[in-house]
Amino acid sequence: MTSFDHKAFLKTLSTEPGVYRMYDSEHQVIYVGKAKSLKKRVSSYFRVNIPDSKTRVLVSNIDSIEVTLTNTETEALLLENNLIKKYQPRYNILLRDDKSYPYILLSGHKHPRLAFHRGSRKYKGEYFGPFPSSAAVSESLRLMQKIFPVRQCEDAYYRARSRPCLQHQLKRCAAPCVGKVSDDDYTEQVDMVRQFLSGKSQQVIAKLVERMEKASVALDFELAAKVRDQIALLRQMQEQQSVAGNFAEMDVIGFVQQNGLSAVHMLMIRDHKILGTKTYFPKVPKDSQADEILTAFIGQYYLGSGGTSRIAKEVILPMALQEQEDLASALGEVAERKVQLKSQLRGERAQYLALANKNAANSIAVKQSAQDSINKRYALLKEALQLSDIKRMECFDISHTMGENTVASCVVFDGQGPNNKEYRRFNVEGITPGDDYAAMSFALNKRYGKLKDEEKVPDVIFIDGGKGQLGRAEAFFERWTLDKMPLLIGVAKGEGRKPGLETLLIDGGRRTVNIASDSPALHLIQHIRDESHRFAIAGHRNKRQKQRTQSLLEEIEGVGQKRRQALLKYLGGMQGVKAANIHQLKQVPGISPQTAEKIFNHLHDKA
Question: Mind listing the pLDDT tens digit for each residue in 495-551?
């Protein structure tokens, strides 16, 4: 049991609402919780008989507890979710996919633009959404570009225009940048976009019909035909998105626990249309109950970063929750309107829930099938390499162009496959250009030179290359001081560099292993090798592009780092700088008329 003196701690604990954080002996946060009464809730962890094995394990690891008082339970709920996101405690249920949903931004400029947006709302304007995926936003923007000629170009591109672009010629932009449309007409189109994105598509159509009739009466048949086409596209878009339902705004949460996995399927309905669906697989401690999982999910999903803007008026639950009323009250307070959580269902609501549960079950089956395939690959690879276990593998690759901008990559695979968070790139420095052997030594030293945590030591390290690169890896590990020693394997390409003909080099190339081309074990090796290759090339291209972007400006006398950054930022990158005339260059902060002329002449001499 824990050495934590809970009796002394509980004597001084407040009965007010708040959040508690439990720490282990290494002062790592292992659990975050909220409570109406801190004393009552924290006391429940130290009862004589705790039936829940998960709670018993948690309590046995408590070394200290810290609390934060709040004025209300809603404040406690918000703080709890912020702390869970910050600390990712071991014994909390974690919503791993916490990326904010994408939105459509209608900017606050004189001539507003429509744009894709994800993340913090740092730009002035109106945000519409959320959308279930970036593809859904892109499709909506593409369709609206056909219907409403509102600009979607970047601000730097918009400022640099001296004549209409291709989008205006395609009748997808009214070209406000060069005065091809009056401010009043452009504002009218923006207002219709705003109404349409707010779910008032019928009002938009009625307004367009009225405008078409006025144009017809005025014998302006060209305008009438243009508005008619807008109406047709709008109605077509409505037909594609419409669902046979009576609910304007609702979220339906499906939930299934099976084979050690928990899946939460979210079905979103806005303006009588299915906006999209998404399945989440929360990280769930062993023996967690369905009520606990769903309560944690709802809190983290709706109250996480940017989540409050997507709280639906009605949320359908797969079961009644102990904290259902408190959650509804907290969500309503945050959303500043009434939010209903419903679990007793009939009619359409029950049908939607059945559909969401069905999708959750299907997602688990798909994930389980994928995991079974990964497990089979690992099992066959262990057999081929004669290893008792493989929990972690890493692979290195080198990328450069004629020795320039050398980048080394290290990708990591664990029992679930690629672990993207552990991927690393290294800018190789201090070597002879083009010396891949030295680059490999540099990367290995960067990766493992100061490593002390044996859990981070891989079971297998793959080197994308032949005996030379493998020899450098073995030379590095001759100085290895940790007890755990990884197996070093060189992946040599076969004849014609064809996939399936790879040879595995072990013991400095003195021993070779050939795996059948159709073996899942070889497919796993190819996967990690290709990942390292892709990751290295992407890093090298980024570095090369950055160097090319800056090199032309660096050659200009009197243009230092701050001026280069101002030019690139204000004009939208190197393409914008090259396309700018002298007058536009002079508008950049810090650029004098003389410097602008010098920059223009230099860039056009280089062209």
Answer: 655 665 788 888 877 888 888 877 888 889 988 999 999 999 988 888 777 666 556
| Alpha carbon distances (Å) from 117 to 113, 121, 122, 130 | 12, 9, 10, 10
Give the single-character DSSP code of 483. Answer: S
Within 8 A by CB and 6+ apart from 290, the residues are: 255, 257, 319
Q: What is the CA radius of gyration of the chain?
A: 30
Residue type (1 letter), 294? L
Give how far Cα 166 sits from Cα of 160, 163, 175, 519, Å: 14, 10, 10, 51
Neighbouring CB atoms inside 10 A of 90's CB total 16
How many CB atoms are closer than 10 A to CB 605? 7
Length in residues, the chain: 607
CB 234 within 8 A of CB 298: no
Summarize the confidence of residues 230-250 as an average pLDDT.
Answer: 63
Helix (H) or strand (E) holding 72: none
Structure-block tokens of residue 225: 């035909």
Relative orientation angle of helices 134-147 and 221-241, to the nearest 10 degrees:
160
Q: Residue 189's Cα: distance from chain center in Å?
A: 32
pLDDT tens digits for range 549-591: 556 777 787 888 888 888 877 777 777 788 888 888 888 888 8
pLDDT(601) > 80: yes
Tokens encoding 382: 């262990």
Could you tell me if 77 and 309 are in contact, meaning their C-beta atoms sit under 8 angstroms apart?
no
Taking Cα atoms as reference points, which of 266, 282, 286, 263 lies closest to residue 274? 266
Please report where in the chains the tokens 């899946």 appear, as a residue. Answer: 263
Strand-pair category, 249-258 with 125-128: unpaired
